[in-house]
Each structure stands twice: as C-alpha cells, then as structure tokens.
Amino acid sequence: MSMKTVGIFLFFLVFMNSFSLDAQTQDTVLLKSGTKVIADVTAISDTEVRYKELSNPDGPEYILNKNSVEKISFSNGEIKMFLIKADNKQYGSNIISYHIFDVIYQDFTIAYEYITKSGMTGIRIPLSIGFNTESDRDGPFNYKNLVYTGAGFNIYLLGQRKASYFMGPEIDFGVGRSFTSEYDLYDYIYKKTDFIYGRLLINNGISVNPVTNFRLSAMLGIGIRYFDLAESQDGGVRSSAYFTFSMGYRF
User: Fold this and answer.
1) What is the CA angle 24-77-67, rounded to 5?
2) Which listed site, 3, 158, 192, 238, has its alpha carbon 20 to 30 Å from 71?
3) Which of 97, 90, 112, 87 is nearest to 217 (CA)?
4) Host domain of residue 74
5) Bridge partners of residue 154, in order along the sequence
6) Which residues on neighbouring strands pair with residue 96, listed in sequence order?
7) pLDDT, tens digit, for every residue of 204-218?
8) Which of 242, 251, 97, 247 lies closest to 170, judged by CA?
9) Statement to judge: residues 202 and 227 lie in one domain
10) Which helix H or strand E contains 9, and what residues bound it?
11) Is the pTM of this model over 0.70?
C-alpha cells in the first residue's frame, strides 16, 4: 500500500470519526412553528431553553421561550416533549359579576358563579332588583321587574382559558309589577299589579379573562317565560330573550 493511499485512508477515517462525534453530540430542538434548531442544549428551566451553536461551543448562549418548543431530541436518544398545560388552575373558582347592560332593563343585577374543579362546568346564581318601578314611562314594556333570582348551569366546551365559550340552561323566578290604565269619565286611572313570573333560557356566551382576577362576558339567552297575569296580553307563556354584558372579579 502506497503512502498516498495510506494518507487518503487516514484522512477519510478522521473525517468520518469527526462526523460521527458531531452527530452524537448534537441536540435537535423542534419548535411549534415547525423550525428545527440543531444545537447543544445547555439548560432547561420553567420558562426557558438555553443552547449554544454547535459551530461555536465557546460562544454565547441563546434563549428560547419554553412555550415555543414542541420537543427536544437529545444526542443520547432521549426525547423530551413539551405539552401545553391546561391553565384551569391559574383562574379562581369563584366569580362575582355585575351586569352592566341590565341598566337598560332598569335592573341592578349581580351574579355569583362557581366553576367546578374540572373547569368544564359552572353553576351560576343571579340576583336582580328592579328600580324605577313606580312608572312605565321610561321602559320598553308595561311591566317591571321587582326582584328575581334563579340558577344556571354553564358548560365550558374548552375549559377555562383567557377566552372561553359557554352554553347551558338557566331557570329564573321572580316578582314583577304590571301597569294598566282605565278611563273613568274625565280621566285615566292608573293601576299597578304585582305578579309572579318565571323563565327558562338557553344561554350562549363568551367570557374573557384579560388578567387572572378580572373577567368580562357577554351572554345571550333565548327561551320562554310565564307571567301570572290573567287579564293582560302579556300573561301566560311567551317567547323570551335576554342579553347582557357583565364584568366580574374572579378569585
């Protein structure tokens, strides 16, 4: 074997050995965007993944947000997956909210909702007290709410997130006041009658948690209601709809 052949053989051997060492020491970081980073991972914390470039092992460390990493394939064959953790626990289970939009109905309404441990369901209890109940001139109907309460069951299809969609039934019962008028010779006589009412709604809504303890929500309910008014066109069973926008404190 000539010296030239031996030299080529040794060069090839060194090259293959170097290539093999590089392949054995490199780590592959796969980002959620689909990008692959070939590097030497130096540290993994609760929020960061630190690495160095293979071509510059003595150079600076680079930092990746841990939430952007899907998995890391280490040089020893180990694979570490970074799953998205459900954030149910960062939000409180109790919500007290004020229904801003209910001022249009001339109601002061608050509600308490308890979110179950799974984060998929909630039990909601509203309490509404009517104001301006001595006149029908400022409202869209000839009846007013005096007070109502009830219970609703919300289903959060995606659990508790910064933005969640929910739906579910709600049943309310309360006391209302009806205003009627009769003409008696020279003038109108106005009468008011208190009555019991109830309603069944199927609610659909969106809740937004911009920060942990603050929540905004919009809700539309469609269903039926019953007014115990025998001598009124508003009595009996009728279709019903309810919309509100609320803000609340979560703890």
Assistant:
1) 105
2) 158
3) 97
4) 3-81
5) 122
6) 112, 249
7) 999 999 998 999 999
8) 242
9) yes
10) helix 3-25
11) no
